[in-house]
Each structure stands twice: as structure tokens, then as C-alpha cells.
Amino acid sequence: MNSLLPVILFIYLHFILTMTKPTLTLEPACKTRCGTLDVKYPFGTGPGCGSPRFHPYVACSPDGTQLLLTTHTGSYPITSISYADSTLTISPPCMSNCTSMQPAPPKFGLDWAGPFQLGSSTFILLACSSSTIKGNPICDPSSAYLCPSIYTCPGVVSLGLPLFPPTNSCCVYSPANLNSNVELDIRELKCAGYTSVVSLGDLPTNPGQWLYGVALKYTLGGLDSYNIAPSCRACEMSGGVCGYSPPRNYFVCVCANGNTTTDCYSYSWIITTSSSLQYSRDLQLGILAIFVFFIVI
Ligand SMILES: *[C@@H]1O[C@H](CO)[C@@H](O)[C@H](O)[C@H]1NC(C)=O
Ligand SMILES: *[C@@H]1O[C@H](CO)[C@@H](O)[C@H](O)[C@H]1NC(C)=O
């Protein structure tokens, strides 16, 4: 009996060590943060994370610093997300603001089949030809007061305008509509630049304090909201990240110790990789060791 004891202890120790190993070495495939943003369902930081409907559009940049929305016209850094209101704000790199105005920006577009639509921010078209403005119903006369403010920004000279230009080349495009290609095409509208304002802050006449960005709404599909969301809430509350497994895209909860079909408290590990196979083999070995230990005693 005494000669068996070291063997049993060795097996038992091996079991304890391998139990804790996955936590120390496995980097979860899906992250809960990207740059400064909390990333939760339906968004994900990479393939297999979040909802499959959102994956082709939203992912964390390869260096991990920015969550990006990618459409057929480009990639746009996401600057904020409100999960409660299903809205987010993006910052197109060629959009003008008070400190920096950029002529001839490329088209800004969304994808027709994607889950995003324009939200409540206000587009202002800058340095437009007079034919765009005159009597054009796209320009909202009730918001025209924004034009004298934005035209106090010294950046207007970058658009080929004089300092403090007359405001008859400025158009508050509200409500904004994307064209039939789901794009805002500044050249088609015969303007030199555009900006988009999310909020005016405390001083509506001080464009230096405005919050610039394009607000978007997103919609969860029927499948997302009814089948996946209940399991997803339990997964997120247990410290996991909601994901999906191609090709059939069934729900997975991505945990530090591996993936499950429910939440991170569950032991229903999906055994797919060699490391998780190792995990379950050592678990069996450990149970066997305890069993042998009791028999010997
Ligand atoms: C867990 O799920 C993620 C996302 O779907 C995937 O990238 C990863 O390979 C999975 N890990 C295992 C061990 O199956
Ligand atoms: C203004 O635009 C420039 C160029 O895109 C950007 O670097 C800067 O952060 C923006 N400033 C504000 C206040 O949004």
C-alpha cells in the first residue's frame, strides 16, 4: 500500500496542474474590449465572435486599438456604442470638423444588406455650388442657423472658401438620405466637403465644442433577438463572450477555459481542439486516481 501512495499522489498532482493550465495559456478567441470600447453582443472582435450578421461589418483592428465598421466604401472607426438604444457613432476619416476641413472626401456608404441605417446625427454640406442650394428641398431651412456657426471655423479655407464666407454655399442636409447605392456622394451633390454633428453641446454657436460623428442605428434580426439573446445574456453574465460556430452558426459561449453551449459555469465543453481533449483526458485520469486512492485505503 505504501509503495502505491507516491504514484497516486503523482497522478493527482498531474491532474491539479493540468486543470489550471488552460486558464494560464489559452487566450480567448473573442475579447470583451477593443481600444476604449466594451464589445458585447451583437458585436464581436473577430470571426466567430458576436452575431454572424454583424461579423462581416464590425471587427477589432489587427493591432487591437480600434473597433472598425467596414462597408463597400471603406473602414470607419467606431467612437461610441449605446447598447441600450441600439445606436453607435462612427468617425469617417475624411469627414470635416471645425479644426480640420477636408476637400473632396470619398463617398461614404453603408451596405444595402447590412443591419445599419443612418441615425439621428445632422449632415452639413459645405462649400456647395449655388445650384445645389437654391430651392433644393434637401436643405432644411429650419436648421440653417448651423451654417453661420460652422462657417466661423478657420478650416473653411481648406475648402477653397474665404474666412467668414457667406452662408449661401452651406446646406444642412436633414433628414439625410443615402442615394440608390446607399451612399452619400459629395461630388454628386456638387459640394466640396461635409461634416456630421451628433450633438451641439452646451454652446450651440461654438462649433469648436460640437461632437462630430455619424450616428447609426442597428437592428437585430428575428433570429438574433429570439433564439440567441437569452443564452447570450447568461453567457455574458458568467464572464463569457457570445459567439457562433460556422458553418451552421450555432451559438457558442466563448470562455477562458474553452467554448460551451450555455455559459462559463457549465461543464458542457465543446471538445474540438487537442488542448480541450487533453483537458477531458486528464479529468478522467484525476477521477481514476481519486477512485484508486479510496480503494487502496
Ligand atoms: C471557440 O469559439 C471561437 C469563436 O467562435 C473560435 O474562434 C475558437 O476557435 C473556439 N475555440 C475552441 C477551443 O473551439
Ligand atoms: C477633426 O478631424 C481630424 C481629421 O480627421 C481628426 O484628427 C480630429 O480628431 C477631429 N477633431 C474632432 C474634434 O473631432
TrEMBL record:
InterPro entries: WAK_assoc_C (IPR032872), WAK_GUB (IPR025287). Keywords: Glycoprotein, Signal. Residues 30-91 form the Wall-associated receptor kinase galacturonan-binding domain. Transmembrane segments: none annotated. It is a single-pass membrane protein. Residues 1-25 form the signal peptide. Its main location: membrane. It is found in: Membrane. It catalyses: L-seryl-[protein] + ATP = O-phospho-L-seryl-[protein] + ADP + H(+); L-threonyl-[protein] + ATP = O-phospho-L-threonyl-[protein] + ADP + H(+). Its EC number is 2.7.11.1. One of its GO terms (cellular component) is membrane. Pfam families: GUB_WAK_bind (PF13947), WAK_assoc (PF14380). Residues 227-257 form the Wall-associated receptor kinase C-terminal domain. GO terms for molecular function: polysaccharide binding; protein serine/threonine kinase activity. The keyword Repressor does not apply. The keyword Glycoprotein applies. It comes from the Eukaryota. PANTHER family: WALL-ASSOCIATED RECEPTOR KINASE CARBOXY-TERMINAL PROTEIN-RELATED, WALL-ASSOCIATED RECEPTOR KINASE-LIKE 15. This is non-specific serine/threonine protein kinase. It comes from Sesamum indicum. The lineage of its organism: Eukaryota, Viridiplantae, Streptophyta, Embryophyta, Tracheophyta.
